[in-house]
Automatic annotation (TrEMBL), chain A:
Positions with biased composition (Basic and acidic residues): 1-11, 25-37
Encoding gene per record: PANK2
Keyword field contains Cytoplasm: yes
Enzyme's top EC category: transferase
Subunit structure: Homodimer.
Name of the featured protein: pantothenate kinase
GO cellular component: cytosol; nucleus
Record's compositionally biased regions (Basic residues): 59-69
GO biological process assignments: coenzyme A biosynthetic process; nervous system development; vasculature development
Protein keywords: ATP-binding, Coenzyme A biosynthesis, Cytoplasm, Kinase, Nucleotide-binding, Phosphoprotein, Transferase
Species per Swiss-Prot/TrEMBL record: Nothobranchius furzeri (Turquoise killifish)
From TrEMBL, chain B:
Catalytic activity: (R)-4'-phosphopantetheine sulfonate + H2O = (R)-pantetheine sulfonate + phosphate; (R)-4'-phospho-S-sulfopantetheine + H2O = (R)-S-sulfopantetheine + phosphate; (R)-4'-phosphopantetheine + H2O = (R)-pantetheine + phosphate
NCBIfam families found in the cross-reference section: panK_eukar (TIGR00555)
Domain of life per record: Eukaryota
Localization per Swiss-Prot or TrEMBL: Cytoplasm
GO terms for biological process, alphabetical: coenzyme A biosynthetic process
Protein task: Phosphatase which shows a preference for 4'-phosphopantetheine and its oxidatively damaged forms (sulfonate or S-sulfonate), providing strong indirect evidence that the phosphatase activity pre-empts damage in the coenzyme A (CoA) pathway. Hydrolyzing excess 4'-phosphopantetheine could constitute a directed overflow mechanism to prevent its oxidation to the S-sulfonate, sulfonate, or other forms. Hydrolyzing 4'-phosphopantetheine sulfonate or S-sulfonate would forestall their conversion to inactive forms of CoA and acyl carrier protein.
Self-association state and partner proteins as the record states: Homodimer. Interacts with PKM.
Annotated ranges, domain Damage-control phosphatase ARMT1-like metal-binding: 466-746
Recorded name of the encoding gene: PANK4
Protein family per UniProt: Belongs to the type II pantothenate kinase family.
Name by which UniProt lists this protein: 4'-phosphopantetheine phosphatase
GO cellular component: cytosol; nucleus
Native organism: Nothobranchius furzeri (Turquoise killifish)
Length: 432, 770
C-alpha cells in the first residue's frame, strides 16, 4: 500500500506499491538525474546540470501524472557513516488544506518535530544554515532540511522512530553508508522499518551533482580560496562548477574515499585512505582528552603545530635547496615528539593542531598524486571532516596550489557531508 | 713464467688492546668488545661516517697484505739443475684493497674514535666524509678526536650512491620479505641493469627518489608521516620512549580494537567495492567514539599499520606515476625490523594488487656510509672495480624475528661489520646467458629447502676436521699453522652455526655459498691454497700418462673415440669411476654424437674443474679433439685457488708442458686457436653472472657457440638449470649419495646434459647440411 502521505487515499490505489520498484516521478526533473531510460545510454556528459534543472512550477496537467508516480511522504534520505548519521528531510510547503486534513497524525507530528526544532535529544543537530528553501522536488515545493547525529546514537533514533510510529507510515527509507547494511536488522527489529539500501559512492556522486545543480540562487554551493598561498589575502570565493567533468571527488568522513568522476554515471573509486576525520578525532581524544570534533577543532585553532612537527628547517637550518624543499615544510609529523624534553613542553592545543595538520596534509598529498595519475585538475573536497574546519580547507587549498605549482584547484561545497544522504533521497524519488 | 695469486689476509691487531683506550673518555662503562672490529686500521685511509639517530656507521678503505700462493715454472735453461718438481710453489705477499664498514650504537662513538686515533698510523687522510642526521651533532667531537676535517655530504645522494654500489656488487642484496613463508627472505636475482628504481627512504620523514642511472636521480616526493611520526606519536600515546620498544609493543597488539574497520561500519564487507570487512576504514576511528581505555600494545599496532599503509600507498602512487616496478625500502623505520617489513609489504601488495613488490636490502643500514665513502674516494675510482663481499669478515644479516631469536635481538654492544674485497678483475655476465635477469646460478636454495639445508650444514661441519688437517699439512714448515688452522676451525664452525639459525645471513644459502665461505675463512687465516702440493703431485703423475692416453684414443674408431673422450672427462672427475652402463641418469649422449657428425663448432668455451687426471687426461684430450675438428677452444679456469681445482696459473704451466709433447696443442696455442682465460672467481662453483670481463670479451670476439661445463660444483650445484643462448654440455658424476638420491639416482650416477637452445637449428638440421 502506498499512501502518498495520505491515510487510505483510495483514489490512488493504482499506484505501484512495491517499494523496491519505486515509481518514477516527474518529467519536470528534465532527466537531470537520468531517470529516463532512453536517455540513459545516450549522452553521458549531457548538457550542464544547471541548465537541466527547472525549479519553475510545473503545469497542472502534468502534475497529476507526477502525483501518480510520486512516493508517499515523508521523504527522507539517510547516510549512516562510521561516525555520523546524516539525514535529509524534505518538508512539503505546498500542502493544500485538503491534504492537511488527510495527513495522518504521525506524519504531521514527525514533520512538526523535525522542523520546529534545531536540536534533537543531546546530540542531534539540524544545520539550519544549510536548509534549502523553496525547492521543487517531484512536483512538490518545500524545504530540504539537513540533520545529523552520531552513529552511536542510532538506537535512540530508532527508539524515537518506534515511539512516533514511523512504521505506520509504510514509507520506504532509503539509506546509504555502511550503517545501512550494519543496522538493517536493527531498523527492522527495533523500529519495524525496512531499509532500501544504496551504495554510498553512487549516492555521493548523485548528491553532489544534484545539490550543485539546484543551487542557482543564494550563496554559491561551490567555492574556493583565492590566494591560498598568501594567508593575508586568502579569501573564500564562489565558484561556478559548470561543466564539472572530469572531477576528483574527495570525501573525507571517518576515512577517505577518492573518486574520479567523468560523468553523472561514470565514476570510479581511485583509492582511499584510513587516515581521515576519524583519525583526527580519535588521535585528538587520545592525546588531549577531548571528546567532540568541535572541541578538537577549537583546540587545534589555538595550537602551534611547529612545536610538535619537525620541519625541514629544523634539520637543514633552512630550505633543503638541493631538492626544492622549503624550510617551513614538515619533514616529520610529530618528529619533535621523539625527544622527551619536547614532549614535556608541548600543549594539548599544539598536539591537536599537529594532528589536524598531519591528517589534512596527508589527504592533500594522496589527492595530489591521484590527480596526477588520473590527469584531473579539479578537486572537490567534501565530507564532514571539513565542517566548520576552515583550517583544513585552507591547508588543502594551499597544498593543492603550492605542490602543483598552481596546476590543481581545490574546491569545496557548502553541504560538505550531506551528499550521500541527498543521493539516497533522490533514489527514493527517482530510482536509477 | 707465470704467476698466480691467492688472497689471504694478514691477521689484524686484536681488539684486546682496546682496554687501555678509553681511560680518559667520559663514559668509562663503555668498552669495545674483544673481537676484531676496526681491522687493518694501520693502513686505513679515506674515512666516512654516517651518524643516524641511534646507530653510527663508519667506513674506511684499507690496503690488505695478502699471503698469495704463487706457482712458477722452472726456467728451461736451469731445468736440469732444478728438482724433479713440476713447478715451484711459493707463498708471497701482495697488497690489495678492502672496504670496511662497521656499524655500532652511537653510545660507542667516542670510544671508537679514540681507538681509531690510537691505531691510525700511516694515513695521509685529512678529511672525513660525514652524512646522516647526527653528523652535525658529532662534528666537533670527530674533528677534535681524529684531527680530521669533517666534510658533510648530502644524505639522499649518499644513500643512492650506496644503494647503486651494493646492488651492483653484492648478488642477493635485495630481498622480498614474506613473513609466513618457509624462509622469511626471498632473495632476488640481481638484474645486471639495476636502473631505474624507486628508493623509499623512511627516516623520521619519508623521501622518495627515482634513480635512473649512476649519476642521475631525482627526489620526486616524500611524506612527513614516517618513522619520526611512529616514534613521536607512539611515545605520546604509550609513554614508551624507545623505537624498538614501540615496535615490541606493536608486535603484541591488536589494531582492530582501536581502528574502525570496514566491518565496524558495514557489519561485514563492502562487497560493492570488494573491500573486505577487515580493512581499516578509519585509523584510530574507534578511539573517537568508544569511551574506554586502549592498551599501549593496541595503539602501537594501530599506529604502525597507519604509517606503513600510508607510506605504502604513497610509494605505489609514485611508482605508478613514474611507471617503475622496482621499489626498494630503507631507513631506520625498516632496518631489519620484520614487523615494519611485513606491514610495508602488506601495504604494497594491497595497493598494487601484487604488481609491485616491496624490496628490501641486506646492507640497507650501510648505504649512507658507503655512499659518503664513495664520494670521498672518487679519485680511487671504486666504481671502476668489482667488489665482493668477504664472508669471513662480514657479520651477515642479523636475525630479525624477535620471537624466534630473542637473544640476537638484543643489539646493545653489537658491532656489525661488512667487508668488501676489491676483486682483481672486473666481473660481468657471460654474454651467452639466455636471460641474464632471471639467471640463478644455484640449483638448490638451502634457505627455502630445509631438509637440504640440514644435510649440507651437517656435511660441511662433518668435513671440517679433514679440512683443518689438510690446511695444517699444506704448511709443514710453519709451526704456528696448527694454531691458525684451529682459529679457522672456530671461525668456520661459528659461521655454520650462524647459518643454521640465520640461513639468510649472506643472501640465499647454497652449497656454493658454504664452499665460498670456507675459502674466505681459509684465506683469512693464511691458508691461501691448502691443496697446492696435492695438486702438483697429481698433475705430475697425470702428465706422465698423457701421451699414452692420447695414443690409445688415436687408435680408436671415430665413434668409439668420441665416447672414450666423454668417459675420460667424466672419469677424470671421479677416481673410482667404474664402467657405468648407459643410459646414464641424465643422458643425451646420442644427440651429442649426432651433433658431432655435423659441422664443427666455431668456438667452444670450456669451464674446467679439477687438477690432475681430470684436466690432463680428461679435458686436454677433448680439447685436442675439438681443435682437430677445427673448433677454437677457450679454457676458463679459476683465478684463485679453491679445493683441488686447477687454477689459471697452474693451467698455464700444464698447457705448456702438454704443448711440448703434443703438436696439436702446440699449434693451437701458437695459432691462437687455444686460449687460456681466467674466470675471475676463486670458487669451486660457478656464477655465470660474475665472470672476468676479459673472458666475456674473448667469448664474444670468438663467436662462441658451445659451452662445456664440467664437474659437480659447476654443473650440478650450480648451472644445472642455466639456459644458454648457444649449445651447451653439462658433464658430471654425482659424487654425493644424498644428492644422487635427490636427483633420483645412485652414487656415481652420470649426468650428461646436452642442450640446444629453443629456436636454434637442431643438431638434426646440422647433420643434414654436412
Amino acid at each position: 500500500m502506498a499512501f502518498n502521505g495520505h491515510q487510505h487515499d483510495n483514489e490512488i490505489v493504482d499506484e505501484d506499491e512495491t517499494p523496491s520498484k519505486l515509481p518514477r516521478c516527474n518529467k519536470e526533473m528534465h532527466g537531470h538525474l537520468r531517470n529516463d531510460p532512453q536517455n540513459e545510454a545516450a549522452a553521458p556528459a549531457g548538457p550542464s546540470t544547471s541548465d537541466r534543472w527547472a525549479s519553475n512550477a510545473t503545469p497542472r496537467h502534468r502534475k497529476d501524472s507526477v502525483k501518480k508516480t510520486r512516493p508517499p511522504f515523508p521523504w527522507f534520505g539517510m547516510d549512516i557513516g562510521g561516525t555520523l548519521v546524516k539525514l535529509v528531510y524534505f518538508e512539503p510547503k505546498d500542502i493544500t488544506a485538503e491534504e492537511e486534513q488527510e495527513e495522518v497524525e504521525n506524519l504531521k507530528s514527525i514533520r512538526r518535530y523535525l522542523t520546529s526544532n534545531i536540536a534533537y535529544g543531546t546530540t542531534g543537530i539540524r544545520d539550519v544554515h544549510l536548509e534549502l528553501q523553496d525547492l521543487t522536488l517531484c512536483g512538490r515545493k518545500g524545504n530540504l532540511h539537513f540533520i545529523r547525529f552520531p552513529t552511536h546514537d542510532l538506537p535512540v533514533f530508532l527508539q524515537m522512530g518506534r515511539n512516533k510510529h514511523f512504521s505506520s507510515l509504510h514509507t520506504t527509507l532509503c539509506a546509504t553508508g555502511g550503517g545501512a547494511y550494519k543496522f538493517e536488522n536493527d531498523f527492522r527489529t527495533m523500529a519495524d522499518l525496512q531499509l532500501h539500501k544504496l551504495d554510498e559512492l553512487d549516492c555521493l556522486v548523485r548528491g553532489v551533482l544534484y545539490i550543485d545543480s539546484v543551487m542557482s540562487s543564494g550563496p554559491s554551493e561551490c567555492y574556493y580560496f583565492e590566494n591560498p598561498t598568501d594567508p593575508d589575502h586568502c579569501v573564500q570565493k564562489p565558484y561556478l562548477l559548470e561543466n564539472p567533468y572530469p572531477l576528483l571527488l574527495v570525501n573525507i568522513g571517518s576515512g577517505v574515499s577518492i573518486l574520479a568522476v567523468y560523468s553523472e554515471n561514470n565514476y570510479k573509486r581511485v583509492t582511499g585512505t584510513s587516515l581521515g576525520g576519524g583519525t583526527f578525532l580519535g588521535l585528538c581524544c587520545l592525546l588531549t582528552g577531548c571528546s567532540t570534533f568541535e572541541e578538537a577543532l577549537e583546540m587545534a585553532s589555538e595550537g602551534e603545530s611547529t612545536r610538535v612537527d619537525k620541519l625541514v628547517r629544523d634539520i637543514y637550518g633552512g630550505d633543503y635547496e638541493r631538492f626544492g624543499l622549503p624550510g617551513w615544510a614538515v619533514a616529520s609529523s610529530f618528529g619533535n615528539m621523539m625527544s622527551k624534553e619536547k614532549r614535556e613542553s608541548v600543549s594539548k592545543e599544539d598536539l591537536a593542531r599537529a594532528t589536524l595538520v598531519t591528517i589534512t596534509n596527508n589527504i592533500g598529498s594522496i589527492t595530489r598524486m591521484c590527480a596526477l595519475n588520473e590527469n584531473i585538475e579539479r578537486v572537490v573536497f567534501v565530507g564532514n571532516f571539513l565542517r566548520v574546519n576552515t583550517l583544513s580547507m585552507k591547508l588543502l587549498a594551499y597544498a593543492m596550489d603550492y605542490w602543483s605549482k598552481g596546476q590543481l584547484k581545490a574546491l569545496f561545497l557548502r553541504h560538505e557531508g550531506y551528499f550521500g544522504a541527498v543521493g539516497a533521497l533522490l533514489e527514493l524519488l527517482h530510482p536509477s | 713464467m707465470c704467476a698466480h695469486y691467492a688472497r689471504s689476509v694478514e691477521t689484524s691487531p686484536t681488539m684486546a688492546e682496546c682496554g687501555r683506550v678509553d681511560s680518559h673518555t667520559m663514559d668509562k662503562s663503555i668498552t669495545l668488545p674483544p673481537d676484531e672490529i676496526f681491522r687493518n686500521l694501520e693502513n686505513a685511509k679515506r674515512f666516512a661516517i654516517d651518524i643516524g639517530g641511534s646507530l653510527t656507521k663508519l667506513a674506511y678503505y684499507s690496503t690488505v697484505k695478502h699471503k698469495v700462493a704463487k706457482v712458477r715454472s722452472f726456467d728451461h735453461s736451469t731445468k736440469e739443475a732444478a728438482s724433479d718438481k713440476l713447478y715451484e710453489i711459493s707463498v708471497q705477499e701482495e697488497v690489495t684493497a678492502r672496504l670496511h664498514f662497521i656499524k655500532f650504537e652511537n653510545a660507542y662513538i667516542e670510544t671508537c674514535l679514540d681507538f681509531i686515533k690510537d691505531h691510525l698510523v700511516n694515513t695521509e687522510t685529512k678529511v672525513i666524509k660525514a652524512t646522516g642526521g647526527g653528523a652535525h651533532k658529532f662534528k666537533v667531537l670527530i674533528e677534535r678526536k681524529l684531527g680530521l676535517k669533517v666534510d658533510k655530504e648530502d644524505e639522499m645522494s649518499c644513500l643512492i650512491k650506496g644503494c647503486n654500489f651494493v646492488l651492483k656488487n653484492i648478488p642477493h642484496e635485495a630481498f622480498v620479505y614474506a613473513k609466513h613463508a618457509d624462509s622469511e627472505f626471498r632473495f632476488q636475482t640481481t638484474d645486471p641493469d639495476i636502473f631505474p628504481y624507486l628508493l623509499v627512504n623512511i627516516g623520521s620523514g619519508v623521501s622518495i627518489a627515482k634513480v635512473e642511472s649512476e649519476d642521475k636521480f631525482e627526489r620526486i616526493g616524500g611524506s612527513s608521516i614516517g618513522g619520526g611520526t611512529f616514534w613521536g606519536l607512539g611515545a605520546l600515546l604509550t609513554k614508551t620512549k624507545r623505537f624498538d620498544e614501540l615496535l615490541q609493543l606493536a608486535s603484541k597488539g591488536q589494531h582492530s580494537s582501536v581502528d574502525m574497520l570496514v566491518k565496524d561500519i558495514y557489519g561485514g564487507s563492502y562487497g560493492y567495492l570488494g573491500l573486505t570487512g577487515d580493512l581499516i576504514a578509519s585509523s584510530f576511528g574507534k578511539s573517537a567514539t568508544a569511551d574506554k581505555e586502549f592498551s599501549k600494545e593496541d595503539m602501537a599496532k594501530s599506529l604502525l599499520h597507519m604509517i606503513s599503509n600510508d607510506i605504502g600507498q604513497l610509494a605505489c602512487l609514485y611508482a605508478r606515476l613514474h611507471n617503475l616496478s622496482r621499489v626498494y625500502f630503507g631507513g631506520f623505520f625498516i632496518r631489519g625490523h620484520p614487523l615494519t617489513m611485513h606491514t610495508i609489504t602488506y601495504s604494497i601488495n594491497f595497493f598494487t594488487k601484487g604488481e609491485v613488490q616491496a624490496l628490501f636490502l641486506r646492507h640497507e643500514g650501510y648505504l649512507g656510509a658507503i655512499g659518503a665513502f664513495l664520494k670521498g674516494a672518487e679519485e680511487d675510482n671504486p666504481n671502476q672495480y668489482s667488489w665482493g663481499e668477504n664472508y669471513a669478515g662480514s657479520s651477515g644479516l642479523m636475525s630479525v624475528s624477535p620471537d624466534m631469536y630473542p637473544m640476537q635481538r638484543a643489539r646493545s654492544g653489537t658491532f656489525d661489520m661488512l667487508e668488501m674485497d676489491r676483486l682483481d678483475r672486473q666481473l660481468v655476465n657471460l654474454p651467452l646467458l639466455q636471460e641474464p635477469s632471471s639467471y640463478i646460478p644455484d640449483t638448490v636454495d638451502l634457505t627455502e629447502d630445509a631438509p637440504a639445508r640440514e644435510y649440507w650444514l651437517f656435511c660441511f661441519e662433518d668435513a671440517l676436521d679433514g679440512v683443518v688437517k689438510r690446511a695444517v699439512a699444506s704448511q709443514p714448515d710453519m709451526p704456528e699453522a696448527a694454531v691458525r688452522a684451529e682459529k679457522f676451525r672456530q671461525k668456520y664452525r661459528h659461521k655454520l652455526q650462524t647459518l643454521r639459525y640465520q640461513p639468510f645471513a649472506y643472501g640465499s644459502l647454497t652449497v656454493r655459498s658454504l664452499l665460498d665461505t670456507r675459502e674466505h675463512c681459509l684465506n683469512e687465516f693464511n691458508f691461501p691454497d691448502p691443496y697446492s702440493k696435492i695438486k702438483e703431485r697429481e698433475n705430475d703423475v697425470a702428465l706422465k700418462y698423457y701421451q699414452k692416453v692420447v695414443k690409445s684414443l688415436e687408435e680408436l674408431s671415430w665413434e668409439d673415440r668420441q665416447f672414450a673422450l666423454v668417459r675420460g672427462v667424466l672419469a677424470g672427475n671421479v677416481f673410482d669411476w667404474g664402467a657405468k652402463a648407459r643410459p646414464w641418469l641424465v643422458d643425451s649422449y646420442d644427440q651429442w654424437l649426432e651433433r658431432l657428425k655435423g659441422p664443427p663448432h666455431k668456438c667452444a668455451l670450456l669451464f674446467v674443474d679439477n687438477s690432475g687426471v681430470d684436466i690432463i687426461l680428461g679435458v686436454m684430450p677433448l680439447v685436442r679433439e675439438l681443435l682437430s675438428r677445427g673448433t677454437e677452444v677457450v679454457l676458463a679456469s679459476n683465478s684463485g685457488p679453491a679445493l683441488n681445482d686447477v687454477t689459471n696459473g697452474e693451467l698455464q704451466i700444464l698447457t705448456e708442458r702438454i704443448a711440448a709433447m703434443d703438436p696439436v696443442i702446440q699449434s693451437g696455442l701458437r695459432d691462437d686457436r687455444l686460449t687460456l682465460v681466467q674466470n675471475g672467481s676463486s670458487s669451486p662453483c660457478l656464477d655465470l653472472s660474475r665472470l672476468d670481463k676479459a673472458l666475456a670479451m674473448v667469448v664474444r670476439e670468438r663467436k662462441t657457440d658451445l659451452v662445456i661445463i664440467e664437474g659437480m660444483g659447476r654443473a650440478i650445484h650450480t648451472n644445472y638449470f642455466a639456459t644458454l643462448s648457444c649449445e651447451s654440455l653439462k658433464l658430471a658424476v654425482i659424487k654425493n649419495s644424498w644428492l644422487a638420491d635427490r636427483l633420483g639416482g645412485k652414487l656415481f650416477s652420470v649426468v650428461f646434459k646436452y642442450e640446444v637452445p629453443a629456436g636454434k637449428p637442431s643438431q638434426e638440421a646440422a647433420v643434414l647440411t654436412p
